[in-house]
Specification:
With about 250 residues, this protein is of the alpha+beta class. It is built from three helices and 16 strands. The protein starts with a helix and ends with a strand.
Length: about 250
């Protein structure tokens, strides 16, 4: 083999190594945040009882309206700060980079053990119904399947998504647009479909709720947030405990 052929093979080999290295380091799985501070934890105020007082012998036709807090769901809203860093296992930093604008995703799961990020995909009807069973979400009007706007196509039993979402990555896994069960939390207490997208994901064993991070968008109460998301709570009648959710975050991607 001549000198030119040897150099050419060496260059090709080096290029392959570089590509492998770039593919290895560019896709980082979501990680737990360094800290979470609960700034506010509120619920709907109770209202005074109303009464009807009519004279005997009369018939009153009433139109009664009631807004009831839903104990089968809860919400997380807030902001994310972060930076890129080069850090050792002892937490010592050799260099870091502040972020000029925020991008990424925030994830919440009720599963305490490690997730299989390499197998994450969009949830389907089967996994959503499993989650309904797990949380005892038996009501057809507010269960997990209907909340994420998912229905079963009667012709091929595939998942059909009523809403839409942008494309995104989970680590190195590409999620095409408009493929996952989706909802949008509210802006100024009104329904909308532009920001605060939330999707239901599944790693083969565990449900993962993911919201695409915004950068100081106007939220449900006109305050600005980087994320808003809702997650299910146990729907058993009289259930008075609470389910812990474990948070992961990706920033800058």
């Amino acid at each position: 083999m001549g000198r030119k052929e040897t150099i050419a093979l060496w260059i090709i080999g080096l290029a392959v190594i570089v590509v492998l290295i770039l593919n290895t380091v560019s896709a980082v799985d979501p990680v737990p945040p360094d800290s979470i501070d609960t700034i506010r934890n509120v619920t709907k105020n109770s209202t005074a009882p109303l009464f009807v007082n009519i004279s005997g012998g009369r018939i009153a036709t009433l139109q009664v309206n009631a807004t009831t807090q839903n104990p089968r769901w809860k919400a997380f809203v807030g902001n994310v700060t972060g930076k890129f860093t080069l850090m050792d296992p002892e937490g010592e930093t050799v260099f870091d980079w502040e972020m000029a604008s925020l991008t990424g995703r925030l994830y919440a799961t009720a599963n305490q053990s490690a997730l299989s990020w390499a197998t994450v995909n969009c949830s389907n009807v089967t996994s959503l119904e499993w989650e309904n069973d797990k949380f005892n979400h038996t009501r057809a009007d507010d269960n997990i399947t209907i909340t994420f706007n998912a229905t079963i196509n009667s012709t091929d039993d595939n998942l059909t998504v009523s809403g839409s979402h942008d494309e995104f990555y989970v680590g190195g896994i590409y999620m095409p647009p408009n493929k996952c069960p989706t909802l949008n939390t509210y802006n100024n207490s009104l329904a909308q479909d532009l920001v605060f997208e939330e999707v239901a994901l599944y790693d083969g064993s565990n449900m993962i709720y993911a919201t695409i991070l915004e950068d100081d968008e106007t939220g449900y109460n006109l305050d600005t947030y980087d994320f808003q998301m809702i997650v299910p709570e146990i729907g058993l009648p009289g259930y008075s405990s609470s389910t812990a959710y474990y948070i992961y975050v990706e920033i800058g991607t």
